[in-house]
Write a structure and sequence with these properties.
The protein is about 45% helix and about 10% strand. It is α+β, with helices and mostly antiparallel strands. It is elongated. GO terms for molecular function: identical protein binding.
Length: about 200
Amino acid sequence: MEASAARGRAEGGSASPDVPEAAGQAGTLVERSGTPGGLALVSPYHTHRAGDPLDLVALAEQVQKADEFIRANATNKLTVIAEQIQHLQEQARKVLEEARRDADLHHVACNMVKKPGNIYYLYKRESGQQYFSIISPEEWGTSCPHEFLGAYKLQHDLSWTPYEDIEKQDAKISIMDKLLSQPVALPPNTEPTFQGLTH
């Protein structure tokens, strides 16, 4: 104990029992210097001593509170990222399901050349074979020969849109077409200027 006190005096500090070297795991006090900025202090003991022992408790509580806030903030951000990952996973699952459905529909029996923009009606024979027709169940009326499975519109990207989603999909495509048809605004002079570099 005396050796550490002597070492503290030799380094220009004071081994005052009022000011511990550290505040524990919650926080650390600033190192003492007998000559801050190269100027010798009149009394390092009076300049470094703690005025109130409760200040150290308040410091430890402040550091602990900061740790809690940082942890809570990081947890909130990670929660948002996790929700985004779940959304992307759901979107990826939907894309894969639609791609599988489109591939299956392209392999359905059909005696005509399918053209984008047209609606085709899917039927199923008693044998289990599925086929496309351009005749709707309404056009067949009561004499519809086979089980009707659904109607699909062939899009220009060769994807299929179910009949109940055609209106919504056409609205999306219309919006995209309008955006793509708008002229891109360019600045009047596209040549680089080097006035600031040459003068």
